[in-house]
Amino acid sequence: MHRFNIETPDNSMREAIQSKIDNLNKPKGSLGRLESLAMQICLVQQTLSPVLQKPQHLLLGADHGIEREGVSVSPREITWQQMINFTRGGGGVNMFCRQHGFKLNLVDVGVDYDLSGFPEIANRKIAAGTDNFLYRPAMSEEQLDRAIMVGADLVDKCASEGTNIICIGEMGIANTSPSSVWMSLFGNIPLEECIGAGAGLDQPGIRHKYDVLKRAVSNFFDTCNNNGICTDLTAEYDNSNKRMAANEYIIRYFGGFEMVAAIGAMLRAAERHLLVMVDGFIMTACALAASRLYPAAVPYMIFGHCGDESGHRRMLSLLNAEPLLSLGLRLGEGTGALCSYPIIESAVRMINEMNNFRNANITKYF
User: Fold this and answer.
1) What's the rounded Cα separation, in Å, for the pair 25 and 104?
2) Rounded to whole angstroms, how far apart are CA atoms 75 and 12?
3) Alpha helices per DSSP H over the chain
4) pLDDT, tens digit (0-9, with 9 covering 90-100), for 308-321
5) I need a surface site. Which of 117, 201, 322, 336 has the fewest CB within 10 A?
6) Residue 27 and residue 21: Cα distance in Å, rounded?
7) For the CA atoms of 113, 118, 119, 121, what is the dihedral angle to 10 degrees?
8) ∠315-330-182 over CA atoms, to 5°?
9) Under DSSP, is residue 170 helix (H, G, I), strand (E, B) or coil?
């Protein structure tokens, strides 16, 4: 897999940033989460006067072989139908992109349908959906590399257009299944505690989903025990090429093309010191996977929303992430993250536009 050069943001400016925040004409700490968010943005951009430029949203679409096992209440064709709907401006993601001034990029990374008749959808198709991970890895090493580079290339294109904040969303029926497995394996959490209703499964449906995923994980361990990879899953992460290889194997065994492309986008954005807005359960699973490859990528991520999917808040806690919103959304597409954008704007406006005590002729009382 392509290697990234990701460095944790330089912390040497922290004291100066904190001083600027504390000298704004307000009680110390009174703007709460906006203050910590402003600190994060300033550290990423290495400036006392941050800016948000030309925000763009990547909507990545792909299908999943595991959908054939009936783990989703939604049929496979919803993926391509929704991708076409997005070209007509009719999706939730379209509405929020228009509202908040985001350029929307629709990308077919692996939809099981010919979308070539829709020029609004960029064709980066790797295959017509992944393989069925109940029986074998979802993708090959070569497909993993291609998916990673799709995401990285998309970020490069955004950056070349002057963008410094990127939001990522997904469209892929059944993608809560690989997300749940990643949460379990990367978080060392029992699988049953990681599985929810997805797009609306009832209790028997959730039980069936659990049974399928449990068999898939059992088959995975049989496979990786046979090739020796499982022993690397317990190795120390730091400076361990074997540990990274084991994490890559988990990613490609269960992941969807849109999910792996999202990981590539997150890692490239961190490498280029861009802000990354992370959406709901699926995108948080991608952020978790990205963090297991490159822990230094996490400070570049802003977690927009905690959704209703079972285990989402627990997965956020694995990343020490504090989401900006909790609106009960479970649409996906990046909608929860997009809804959080005005809060990010407010944090930037706070540090740039509020007066300080000296200029406002107000006594500093702390």
Assistant:
1) 37
2) 51
3) 14-22, 32-45, 77-87, 92-100, 141-160, 176-187, 203-226, 241-254, 257-271, 281-293, 312-318, 335-339, 341-353
4) 766 889 999 999 99
5) 117
6) 10
7) -50
8) 35
9) strand
CB 243 within 8 A of CB 235: yes
pTM for this prediction: 0.94
Residue type for position 214: K
Query: Residues 6 or more apart from 313 whose CB is under 8 A from it?
Result: 306
Q: What's the token pair of residue 309?
A: 């999917």
Q: Which of 247, 341, 347 is nearest to 293 (CA)?
A: 247
Amino acid at 46: Q
Task: Kindly list the catalytic residues.
Answer: 333
Sign of torsion over alpha carbons 108, 110, 111, 113: positive
Instruction: Tell me the DSSP string of 308-362.
Output: SSTTHHHHHHHTT---SB-------TTHHHHHTHHHHHHHHHHHHHSPBTTTTT-
Q: What is the pLDDT of residues 83-104, one digit of tens each?
A: 999 999 999 999 999 999 999 9
pLDDT for the residue 196: 76
Which letter does DSSP use for residue 305 in this model? B
Contact present, 86 and 107 (Cβ < 8 Å) = no
